[in-house]
Design brief:
It contains 14 helices and 13 strands. With 552 residues, it is of the alpha/beta class. It is globular. Belongs to the CN hydrolase family. Apolipoprotein N-acyltransferase subfamily.
């Protein structure tokens, strides 16, 4: 029986419901999402593994595993697929890494994690695109540096937390910091992971080649062991006897200061106890004393009582003391976060003002607009005024390089102090807001890397912990517990020599970052040529084309 088609009165075949094409597109999109779920789930798992590589967990080999896994997941994918995989990897990583921000608010932690994960999404796209290039493990390692280079600067001055180097501050990779700083450590870790991924690909499938896999594995081992060939000088030209005061705070968290003068009294009393022990012969007199950031909760220049309390404690101990305090800024709307050299005879002298205030913690960008919808920002009553000079100051017999709190995460701030003559590094910090959250452990790890990178002892003074002394080889000589009043006495080397990393400055970072960008450009160009060639031949480009807009 012949098939006939019913026609309308006008003689035309009836139209299909308009919803049919839309339903078809929805079904296809849903099928693609389902097909991509296993890959997305693996990306999430790998992101969590990378988070576990960082303090307080310190499972640093997982940083290699995470890089290798992300390299395999993005291998041969489209740029859009790679971007999604990178985001699925980056978001859980930063949520785990930055969980200490929940003290401020869960929304703050999630918001910052999303912003940082967008950079990893760009990394994922770059990994997918360059995975078609010869020597792609090298470009993978370069792109990790490119991603960190961007995150360290953007937006609002950047946020360097979560660099691969900061998960490897006491590993075989660490000595490489003396040659090329944190970027070279990141490069070596990423190269090791990418080579292991390449080796895995050569163990199965059409690309199977046990010999090539073995060579790639040997390359990964060489990347791990390369640091052992780097000399890390530790001998000092002179020595410095130092006492670090950790006075503790009454209430960890957002309201750590307690009553006015309470934190200041904690540090003054601990210093006076040290003075009494010296007078009784129970302790040797140090050359200098170091107080942490915000050790004085009142401006000594505008509050006579705070001035007298500091001066009394410094006179009692009888040696120059580095005081951390907030002072009034150039106008009534600003305040300055400072380290002040306080002499027992002449009083306050040289000072360093923190150069890199923390957005939304120490100043509010777009205050007039954002304060209308986020009332919590009113807690930052006055914006911090940034300093314009390095923290190089003479403290007693030592020329120190003062770095305040989060500044230890920024390469150039620490490097500039050493290149301008600092013989020992001092990190004044107040982590009382984030006590027992893992954040103090992460900051301690960064200080360990800086010690190796610059060949300097690092003295950490924290209000509530973790305070410590780190040798120039990155080893922790001593450290305090959190939320305890403590005092550290140590003799540390003063060094004048500069490392290769100090001399090269940002050159290794820029070289590796630009190489990653150039590799992306070359891969995109190759993809465009393939598309043009396919069209000229009357066909369509292969499904593995770098620009094929397929979603996961």
């Amino acid at each position: 029986m012949p098939v006939t088609q019913e026609r309308s009165a006008s003689g035309h075949a009836p139209e299909e419901p308009a919803s049919a094409p839309a339903a078809g597109r929805g079904a296809r999109a849903l099928a693609k999402v389902r097909a991509g779920l296993p890959r997305t789930g693996l990306a999430v798992l790998l992101g969590l593994l990378l988070g576990a590589a960082f303090p307080p967990y310190d499972l640093w080999p997982l940083s290699i595993v995470a890089v290798a896994g992300l390299s395999l997941l993005t291998r041969g994918r489209t740029a859009r697929q790679g971007a999604w995989t990178g985001f699925a990897f980056g978001l859980p990583f930063f949520v785990l890494l930055l969980k200490w921000l929940t003290v401020i608010g869960t929304d703050a932690m999630i918001g910052l994690s999303v912003v940082e994960a967008l950079f990893v999404a760009a990394l994922g796209a770059g990994l997918a695109v360059t995975s078609r290039l010869p020597g792609w493990p090298l470009w993978t390692a370069c792109l990790w540096v490119t991603q960190e280079w961007a995150r360290d600067r953007l937006p609002l001055g950047g946020f360097p937390w979560g660099r691969l180097a900061f998960a490897n501050t006491a590993t075989p990779f660490t000595p490489l910091a003396a040659l090329g700083g944190a970027p070279l450590v990141t490069f070596a870790v990423a190269l090791c992971g990418a080579l292991l991924a390449w080796a895995a690909l050569r163990l199965r499938g059409p690309l199977r080649s046990p010999r090539a896999a073995a060579l790639a594995a040997l390359g990964a081992v060489a990347a791990v062991l390369a640091g052992y060939a780097v000399p890390v000088p530790t001998a000092g030209d002179d020595n410095l006897k130092v006492a670090i005061i950790q006075g503790n705070v009454p209430n960890p968290g957002m309201d750590f200061l307690g009553r006015p003068m309470q934190v200041l009294n904690n540090h003054a009393e601990a210093t006076e106890k040290l003075a009494a022990d010296i007078a009784a012969g129970r302790r040797e007199r140090p050359d200098v004393v170091i107080w942490p950031e915000n050790a004085s909760d009142l401006d000594p220049f505008s509050d006579p009582l705070a001035y007298r309390r500091i001066d009394q404690a410094v006179k009692a101990v009888g040696v120059p003391t580095l005081i951390g305090t907030l002072v009034d800024g150039p106008d009534s709307q600003h305040v300055q976060n400072e380290g002040i050299v306080w002499d027992p005879k002449t009083g306050p002298g040289a000072s360093y003002t923190k150069q890199h205030p923390v957005p939304f913690g120490e100043y509010v960008p777009f205050r007039a607009e954002l304060s209308k919808i986020i009332t919590r920002l009113d807690r930052v009553a006055r914006d911090f005024w940034p300093g314009t000079s390095t923290g190089v100051m003479q403290l007693g017999p030592a020329r120190i390089g003062d770095v305040i709190c989060f500044e230890v995460a920024y390469d150039e701030i620490v490097r500039d102090t050493v290149n301008q003559g600092a013989r020992v590094l001092v990190v004044q910090t107040n982590n009382a807001t984030y006590a027992l959250s893992g954040q103090p452990d992460q900051q301690l790890a960064m200080s360990r890397l800086r010690a190796v990178e610059h060949g300097r002892a690092v003295l950490i003074a924290a209000t509530s912990g973790i305070s410590g002394v780190i040798a120039p080889d990155g080893s922790v000589v001593t450290r305090t517990d959190e939320l305890t009043a403590a005092e550290i006495a140590a003799t540390v080397p003063l060094r004048d020599g500069r490392t290769v990393a100090d001399r090269l400055g940002a050159v290794p970072e820029w070289t590796l970052a630009v190489a990653g960008l150039l590799a992306c450009g070359a891969a995109v160009g190759a993809g465009l040529r393939r598309r043009r060639g396919a069209r000229a031949a009357g066909g369509t480009p292969a499904g593995d084309d770098a620009l094929n807009p397929v979603v996961p």
